[in-house]
Amino acid sequence: MHDIRTQWGVCLAATLALAACGGTREEDAGSGGESAATDGAAPAAVADGSAALRCPPEVRTELSGPDIIGIRIGMSADEALATTRCALGEDAQVKPGNRWLDRLETHGVELGTQTFTVRKGEHRPCNFQREWQECEGGLKWEHVDEIVTVATPGAPGKETALGVWRTQTFREGSMPPVQALLDALASKYGPPQIAEASDKPRGYTAGYRDLEWMFDQAGQPLAEANPMFSRCRGAVHAYKGNTSARWNDGCGLNIRARVSLSGGNPGLAMELGSAMLHQGELFAQVEAMQAELQQLGQARREAEVQQAGEAGDVRL
Q1: Which pLDDT does position 3 carry in this prediction?
Q2: In a domain, 315, yes or no
Q3: Is 314 inside a domain boundary?
Q4: How far apart are CA 261 and CA 270, in angstroms?
Q5: Number of domains the chain contains
Q6: Within a domain: residue 316?
Q7: Domain contains 241
Q8: Digit-coded pLDDT (tens) for 89-98
Q9: Where does the record place the region Disordered (predicted)?
Q10: Least confident of 121-125, 217-221, 227-231
Q11: CA 48, CA 131: separation in Å to the nearest integer?
């Protein structure tokens, strides 16, 4: 597991996330209603943070490639959640969701955890009479230090981490130098293919530095001359609150990072966002998931018809 660590009087950990293209997915990590599970289906993942936490987490050693706080593409939902909780701490809040993909036909199959968000920061019990609009799960967040969202789409028992989004919000007095973060990102992921900069103030920020890395399906950096370059870019965003994604078959891994400059001192970073997604693997996962859900749904319907036929004679 790699952390971006910058020495500037204190040691700051700053890691990022990866992203990919091939369809669309819902913005929020909320739950969607599903019907009962199909007999014979594999047990669905329940990555809700209720399991006892053991650190370091147990993950398959064969998983490789870039990471964000140790989360790698291809992890199971349980592996990804355990890795996230170990990184953010046992007290971090976990919010699971059973919907992530837009326009997904479940065929009546109950889905397991399709996405989860883990949040770390300063919070207190919410006063619902005065703060009901700011209450989240009974808590009023005074400051969110870090928030990680992982997309784990898949049929029951095959939920797989294929997208990661992470945002770190630095407090006053603990903001790292912008250049130190940019250097650390390049050291972790290599030279970015795309680097964009803006010094236009917006809200509390004085601008941003945006970086993007793209890899082909073999894991090699995608050259700008490659015909797939324009098709594969922009699969994810790394700014706060945007966990949307798009993906295309034939594309590989995408990584995005955004350093937001402090309005009080543009040389310091007030926020670091990162995102990671594998477009080709997500495309294949969605196709396989749709096919399996259709099969499971058909098997359930046939079983219901057979059971109804055995229930008794038809009287006319």
Answers
A1: 43
A2: no
A3: no
A4: 6
A5: 1
A6: no
A7: yes
A8: 988 999 999 9
A9: 24-43
A10: 121-125
A11: 26
